Amino acid sequence: MEIIQIFGILFALFALSRVILQIRNRNMNLDEGIFWIFVWTLVVVVLVFPQTLDYLARVLGVGRGVDAIIYLSIVALFYLIYRMYAKMEHLEREITKVVREIAIKDRYEPKDKNEG
After folding, report:
1. Cα 93 to chain center, whole Å?
2. Phi, psi (5° rounding) for residue 115?
3. Model's pTM, two decimal places?
4. Domain encompassing residue 42
5. In a designed cystine with 33, which of 23, 59, 65, 79 is the match (CB 3.0 to 4.6 A)?
6. What is the C-alpha separation between 116 and 110, in angstroms, rounded?
7. CB of 31 closer than 8 Å to CB of 38
8. Do the domain assignments include residue 49?
């Protein structure tokens, strides 16, 4: 086993432990946690068994395993960007709704005479 594989495995195990800790502390929801657990477990498997990349390359019809990883990583990044965009749009709509409700409430509720 090469030294880069050892460092990669250690990093992936560290990242995996952080994901589990985030789930346990409820800083990450279970769906996202399962996704990241899958990703980091897959990283460990690929680092322990690098020949799986050659099989993946043959299945996808690309030349090398590293090329397959790059292509799949690009697809995954686009998916993550889409998810972040969708969440951001949802949050913007929610903020707009709350601001409108506060503005209407402030407009029609009488003010205290003690306030400015």
Report:
1. 22
2. -85, 140
3. 0.68
4. 3-108
5. 23
6. 13
7. no
8. yes
CA distance 20 to 35: 11
CA angle 9, 15, 19 (to 5 degrees): 140
Determine phi and psi for 68, rounding to 5 degrees. Answer: -60, -45
Residue 54's contacts (CB-CB under 8 Å, 6 or more residues apart) are 64, 65
User: What is the per-residue pLDDT across 53-81, written as a single tens digit (0 to 9) for each?
Assistant: 888 899 989 989 889 999 999 999 999 99
**DSSP class of residue 86?**
H
The Cβ-side half-sphere exposure at 47, using a 13 Å CA radius, reads 18
The answer to whether residue 114 sits within a structural domain is no
Candidates 45, 60, 40, 47; CA nearest to 7 is 47
Question: For the chain, what is the domain count?
Answer: 1
